[in-house]
Amino acid sequence: MSSPEAGEKGPYRILPFIIRGGIKSPNDKPLPKITLCTHATADKVYHVVDIVKKWEGPVSFSVFAPGHDAKIAVDMLDRACRCEPEMYKLSVHLIFLTTDHLPANIINDKPRSKGDCAAWDLQWHELDTERIRNRLIYPINVARNVARNLATTSRVLVSDVELLPSDKLASGFMQMIHGRPPRFGLVFVVPVFEIEQHQRPPRNKSELMNAITNGLAVYFHKYICLHCQRFPGMTRWMLRPDPSRVRPLIVTRREYPHHRWEPLYIGTREDPLYNEEMSWEGRQDKMAQMLEMCLMNYRLIILDGAFLVHSPGIKRKASKLNLLKNNLEQNYEMQNAHLYQIITRRLLKQYPVNRRCRQ
To answer: What PANTHER family does UniProt report for this protein, alphabetically (predicted)?
Structure first.
C-alpha cells in the first residue's frame, strides 16, 4: 500500500531510510519479528530513544520535518545514535512538503562530540520549529502510514512517540502466537494508560495497577476523551492479577456501544490505511480507519499482561485562557468532523450494511 498524500500528486514527499535499522542484535541474535511504527514532529524526535530502549524489535520512525526542521531532526538523531547503543534497531524516514518548506541543509558540519546524553534540553518542551512558527498542520496519518508501510516485518504495532511499551511486549507476543502467521481481519489490542509526570513508567501490570490504586495512573485520555481509550473488558482486565506473560483476554469488535473507541493494536501492513485527510490538530484522527475495520468485520483481541503508557504526564483539559489557540483548535475539529462525514458516506457505500458499525 502507498501513502496517498505522499504520492506523485499529493503535497508530501518521503525521504525513506535516512537511517536503516538492523534485524539482528550486535551479537547476531534475531529481533522479534514485529515492528513498532511511530512518528513525530521535529521537536519530539528525541522521545524515540526511550522507545528503542524498551522495545525489543525493530522500530520504524517517520518524522514530519518541513524546511529547517529537517536539520533539527537529523541533529537530534545524530546525537542519539552516538549516545544510545539501542539505536541500531531504528529506521528513520523524513516527510516534507513539496512547496515552500523544502528541507534545508541537513549536513552537520560542527565537530561531533558525545554531548549530554541525558538530553534534558531536548525533552518535555517545544523547540522553535518551522512547523510551529508557520502553523503547519501535522499530517499525522501520513506519518503513521509511512512508518507502517516501510516496516521490515509483516506484523506491526502503530503507536505514538510518547507511548512506552511494557517490558518484553514484543517477545511476549511472539511467544503467545507460537509462530502462527497473521490472519486477515484479526488484530490484537494493546491497552493504553497514562501516568503522572516524573513518575517512573510501570514496567509490568503489577506496577501499573499499583500506580492506578495510588491515583498516579489512569486509562489514556480519561480526562479529555472518556470514550477514546476505554476498552471493552477494562474492569475485568484490571481485576485480573498480572499473568506475567502476554495472553489474550477477550475477543470483541469495534461496534456499538464502543463505536467511538480508537484502540492501538498489533496488526499487519495490510490493514486499512489511516485516512490522510484527517489532521492531528482536528482530533479523532483514527476514527475513519476504525469504522472501515468494523465494516470489514475485524475481530479485536484484547491483550492482558501488555500495555502502553504515556509518561509525559496525565492529559487534562487545557484552560480557556488562550483564546487564539482554542479558536484554531475548534476550526481544526470542525474540519475533521466535516471530513469524517464525507469519508463515512463513502465507506458506507463501499461495504455491506452493518448497523452496529455506528459513526
So the answer is: FI01434P-RELATED (PTHR47412:SF1)
